[in-house]
């Protein structure tokens, strides 16, 4: 082989590049395999695209669900506060109504103005609660005491 010397500060291109036939076959196959490894098939590209889209849809759905849960918790909290306020107001109104009742005055008006009287022995009808329930179910009209 002939030796070439290069003078100057730049290297010159060699005129006779190495031909493909000179490269050993196993090196050529390895180079082809590397090129094929770097290319993606259409099926693989489609799979990756579908995987990314599915991941995006699932994450969007999950975040939406989290936001709905937060809003529901806020709504429940607000409604519970409102319920507590209403219960307090109701209890205060009930206590005020109970404390303002004068049972003697009610009895006087009922007997004096409306002519009500206490029930007599024959007017009271008792029912037994054999079923064990806390209430008696009326299945027929109440009989007249006369």
Task: Give the topology.
Blueprint: H1 25-38, H2 42-100, H3 103-112
Structure description:
By secondary structure, the protein is mainly α. It has helices at residues 25-38, 42-100, 103-112. The longest helix is centred in the middle third of the chain and has 59 residues, at 42-100.
Q: Quick one: how many beta strands?
A: 0
- What is the terminal separation in angstroms? 144 Å
- Give the amount of beta strand, in percent: under 5%
Any idea what the radius of gyration is?
A: 49 Å
| Secondary structural class | mainly alpha
Q: Give, in order, the helices and strands.
A: HHH
In short:
The chain is 57% helix and 0% strand. By secondary structure, it is mostly helical.
Give short descriptive properties of this protein.
single chain, 146 residues, mainly alpha
């Amino acid at each position: 082989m002939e030796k070439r010397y290069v003078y100057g500060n730049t290297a010159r291109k060699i005129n006779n590049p190495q031909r493909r036939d000179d490269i050993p076959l196993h090196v050529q196959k390895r180079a082809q395999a590397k090129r094929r490894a770097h290319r993606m098939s259409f099926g693989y590209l489609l799979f990756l695209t579908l995987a990314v889209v599915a991941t995006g849809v699932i994450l969007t759905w999950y975040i939406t669900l989290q936001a709905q849960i937060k809003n529901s918790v806020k709504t429940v909290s607000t409604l519970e506060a409102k319920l507590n306020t209403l219960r307090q107001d109701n209890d205060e109104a009930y206590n005020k109504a109970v404390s303002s009742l004068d049972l003697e005055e009610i009895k006087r008006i009922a007997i004096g103005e409306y002519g009500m009287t206490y029930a007599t022995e024959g007017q009271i009808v008792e029912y037994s609660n054999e079923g064990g329930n806390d209430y008696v179910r009326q299945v027929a009209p109440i009989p007249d005491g006369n």
